[in-house]
Amino acid sequence: MRDDTHPKAPKPPAAQKKVATLRFRIVPGHRVVPMLTGAWLVKHLLPARGLAVIYGPPGSGKSFVALNVAYHVAMGETWAGKKTKQGAIIYIAAEGGHGFANRVVAAREQLEVPEDTPLGIIYVAPNLGSVEGDALLLVKEIKAQVFALGWEVAAIVIDTLARTMAGADENSTTDMGRFVRNVEFVANAFQCLGIAVHHTGKDVDKGMRGSSALHGAADTEWEIGEDDHGKSITVVKQKDGAPDNLTWRFALIPHVLGEDEDNEKVSSCVVAITSEVKQKENPKIASKRKQVKGQKALLLKAITCCIEDVGDLLPVSAHLPSNTQGIIRQRLENYTDMMGFKEGTSERVQRSMVDKMLRELAGDGFIGRWGKHIWLVDN
Questions:
Q1: Residue closest to 101 by CA, chosen among 135, 63, 72, 73
Q2: CA angle, residues 164, 166, 172, in degrees to nearest 5
Q3: What is the torsion angle, in degrees rounded to the nearest 10, for the CA atoms of residue 254, residue 259, residue 264 and residue 269?
Q4: Which residue pairs from 269-274 have beta carbons closer than 8 angstroms and sit at least 24 positions apart in sequence?
Q5: 252 strand-pairing partners
Q6: Whole-angstrom Cα distance, residue 1 to residue 174?
Q7: pLDDT at residue 365 above 90?
Q8: Secondary structure (DSSP) of 116-140
Q9: Do residues 300 and 289 lie in contact, with contact meaning Cβ atoms separated by under 8 Å?
Q10: In angstroms, how far is CA 221 from the centroid of its own chain?
Q11: Cβ atoms within 10 A of the Cβ of 316, count?
Q12: Which of 36, 94, 143, 146 counts the highest number of beta carbons within 10 A?
């Protein structure tokens, strides 16, 4: 006789259909949100992701600059007056040798770097110039080591590009394209910035050496230069979020490390930032401004100084240029006071005089004005 007093066991649920992981997933446009934070490794100077190139002629100090900014990021300290996003730096010193070791020690001593600062050096040059190169192995071995150290990688520096091409041709679009893809592969594995230190060609004015494929792929480019006023760094390319003509100055300062076996001093160099970051003026515009005379020239100088000292990015508006430093009229008045516009005139007369000259400077194309905002025009 069948016993119906016990409840029947539930039927097993129907097998759920397995959803395949999509590589090329479609995200509806209305779900896309703005990226408001985390865009910068060094505010306005280096992005947090992508590919950056620091280049200059031999002896310009590009490697010293790369190491200096790397240490500041690793410590989370401001650099060139700009905020940094702290994170670990892996510095591939492909040219290696005791000379680079001396640079590391000199920078460490100059900056008084704490022992737990997450910056590490790799002295072996990986092959990043071919399809069968070392990109995969490099990622695997860095991951294993940073996991053990508890580091989160913010940037990987490759110094120099030439030493990691492994015989590939820098002038070949194909070979340079392979280098770019390998660096992007390594950087993407850590969701970090890849930084390549590179040389200029024989004609320094033509920029980076080799195929233009590197220039096309780079998100940011810094050019290391030198003139009668000293050494400089200029952002010659910046894809998103900041002007691409920012410039600032630095100096290389000798740093004594100790003595050799013959009691002679052993030295290296360290970097000292010697100016604030500001927008570089177009030489044609500078020449045009020299034609302005008298009080109008004094006012144009006051506007320039005010923007350099206390200028801010203009707000987003259809009437204002994007990514441009400017000031409001109220701030300019402090500078006109210091430059003597009020001497011998009443405040009302002085203000009327400045208003008239502002209209003339705007009409001549030297400045732009909209409401209370004023900016320099570079056209």
A1: 63
A2: 95
A3: -10
A4: 269/61, 269/64, 269/103, 269/106, 270/64, 270/68, 270/106, 270/107, 270/110, 271/61, 271/64, 271/65, 271/67, 271/68, 271/107, 273/79, 273/80, 273/81, 273/248, 273/249, 274/230, 274/249, 274/250
A5: 271
A6: 83
A7: no
A8: T--EEEE-SPP--SSTTSSHHHHHH
A9: yes
A10: 7
A11: 8
A12: 94
Beta bridge partners of 325: 313
The per-residue pLDDT of the chain, averaged, comes to 88
The owner of tokens 């790369």 is 66
Helix segments in 150-254, DSSP class H:
173-190, 213-217
Residue pLDDT, tens place only, 100-117: 999 999 999 999 999 999
pLDDT digits (tens, 9 = 90+) for 314-336: 888 888 888 788 998 888 887 87
Q: What is the mean pLDDT of residues 198-213?
A: 87
Question: What is the token pair recorded at 315?
Answer: 């707000």
pLDDT in tens, 62-103: 999 999 999 999 999 999 999 999 999 999 999 876 789 999
CA distance 118 to 201: 34
pLDDT digits (tens, 9 = 90+) for 210-241: 999 999 999 999 999 998 889 999 999 998 76
Nearest to 277 by CA among 307, 322, 297, 255: 307
Q: What are phi and psi of 54, to 5 degrees?
A: -110, 115
Q: How far apart are CA 180 and CA 195, in angstroms?
A: 11
